[in-house]
Amino acid sequence: MWNTVLFDLDGTLTDSGEGITKCVQYALRKEFNINVDDLHELDSFVGPPLKEQFMEYAGIGEEDAERAIRAYRERYRTRGIYENRVYDGIPELLAQLSAEGMTLAVASSKPTEFCREILRYFGLESYFAAIVGSEMNGTRTKKADVIEAALKALSMQDKRRQVVLVGDRKYDVEGARSVGIGSIGVSFGYGSREELEQTWPDVIADTTEELRNVLIGQYRDGLAGSGVPAGNPAASKDRNVSVAGLPYGAYVQQYGYGVPGDYAPQVYYLPPNAYAPVEKAGVVRQNPSARPALTPSPYGRPAPGYYARPEGESFPYKVWRVLYPFLLDISLSALVANLALAVIILFFGAAGQAEEIYNHNSLLILGITDLAIIPIAAALLAGDERKRVSLGNFDCLLRENNVTVLNFLMLIVFTLCASTLIDILVSYIPVGSSPDYQEFKTTINSAPAAIQFFAVCISGPIMEETLFRGLIYRRLRDYCGFAWAAVISGVFFGAVHGNLVQGVYAAMFGIILALIYEHYGTIWASILAHITNNLSASFGSYVLQNLSDAGYCIYLALCVGLTILLGMLIFSKNRRVNCV
Fold it and tell me: Which of 26, 218, 421, 527 is the most buried (most CB within 10 A)?
């Protein structure tokens, strides 16, 4: 049963041909002096990625195609985006699908910014739990990549059989098939029925009414447990049987990638009047300034009529949002420390003796404090992700990279080598004696190895990564992008360590941790790197102190070589799914 529907935008929800073709006409004339009088010659630009279409149509290279896209957007931002109309029946379709309880999203090759503005302009944005498009920098233009991003935003990566893409071009059908979800082709858009039949979608619908009947019919049948959405019983046993003998209005869903040689998509699968049309929910306003005031929705999928995107956040609020997790950490640390001291005084009486016992066990108390903060920070991190989805800020989400055991082994070695080089650089800082740093080292070294392992190598890294990377870095990234967020959060991470030696080291290493988090798209990657670094700092000296001068030089040379080599392998451009 399909309970989640991804809609293409151009040629599926809206007829955007006029705006797109006029902007293509403008770009071709301005950049290459190519005059196209008949706009229908440019209909092929509606739907597919622009770069590929410019290269194919004009016979140009990537650099020239980029120029054409910039010229295209000059006109599109101000005029072309509004030379558009919603297909008849689409508002009613979205209203009824939402009323039925289905989850709706948009997955388009058009940049997310433009998708959101078009849907907002026509009053349709609130129906969608996710609006995902390509990036303005020209990345994520392939349909399969857009669909994957939408699946992640909806947390449907492991429920692909419940997801269907509705689109009008072969690129939509092929993209859906490549990621393992269902597809419905609509012939009322810019792709012909012949084009759709050649790519074999699961269903072809010629009107929005037929599309509504297919989606709602299979959804209700699935809820009722009738078994119809599971596919044609005969065809599921033998892929080569004909389905021409199915009764009128039967619903067929083609799972898998094989297509029977004599299977022809039918015009409809449910009688056109099987389900009564729904009343239009409110007025669709084409003037964006005429949108009614809407009430906020709780985090999660916005309810119909909820205008999800915020009007703006003040600078003081942004600063508060970035800093309050750290202030929460300080408050909880002080609370746990005072509670521990109170318990010690209660059992040992004298304040002086209690203070001595507290100092002797300060590392254990720190580990317990970190352990108490972890679930709170994790809950805030999960809440941030839900908020980004509910507000439609999908550019702020991180896509999880494909990782293997080998990737993590490479990460461990890279972290060991890079942290050694940072440590050497920091050792040249002319700070003289640092009493705070020496006191910190004494506290660490005087604690039993088990407590060192618990507090320094387990609870500390998990807490600090969830707090500083998961919350502070990610919130900075929401406002200023990757580079500035990595630097600012790294400097802040260094500053809270309280002494110059640790501060400089932590700032540099914090930037590397942000880079690792950005690349892998999961907080567990930076946690693993942080644990590796702390293990090396706590117990690695026992190995290094026994090396001869020649052995130490060889070790440093290996660190330099492996840092460069593994850095190139891990962060190579063809492995990038986020900003790094």
Answer: 218
**Which residues does 363 contact at the CB level (< 8 Å), separation at least 6?**
443, 444, 447, 451, 452, 455, 456
- 3-class DSSP state of 323: helix
Residue 240 lies in a domain: no
What is residue 129's predicted lDDT score, i.e. its pLDDT? 92
Quick one: CA dihedral 485, 490, 495, 498, positive or negative?
positive
Cα–Cα distance between 9 and 207 in angstroms, integer?
16
Tens-digit pLDDT profile for residues 166-202? 999 898 999 999 999 999 999 998 888 888 888 889 8
Determine the Cα angle at 475 with ends 407 and 396, to 5°.
65
Question: What residues are labeled active site?
Answer: 8
Whether 95 is covered by a domain: the verdict is no
- pLDDT band, residue 440 (cuts 50/70/90): low
Residues 269 and 361 in one domain: no
The reply to whether 58 falls in a domain is yes
The yes-or-no verdict on residue 131 having pLDDT over 90 is: yes
- Does residue 71 sit in the same domain as residue 151? no
For 372-386, how does the pLDDT look when each residue is reduced to its tens digit (9 = 90+)? 999 999 999 988 887
Does 98 map to a domain? Answer: no
Residue with tokens 């939402």: 98
Domain membership of residue 184 as a residue range:
4-10+105-232+246-290
Three-class SS string for 208-274? Answer: HHHHHHHHHHHHHHHHHCCCHHHCCHHHHHCCCCCCCCCCCCCCCCCCCCCCCCCCCCCCCCCCCCC
156: domain CATH number is: 3.40.50.1000
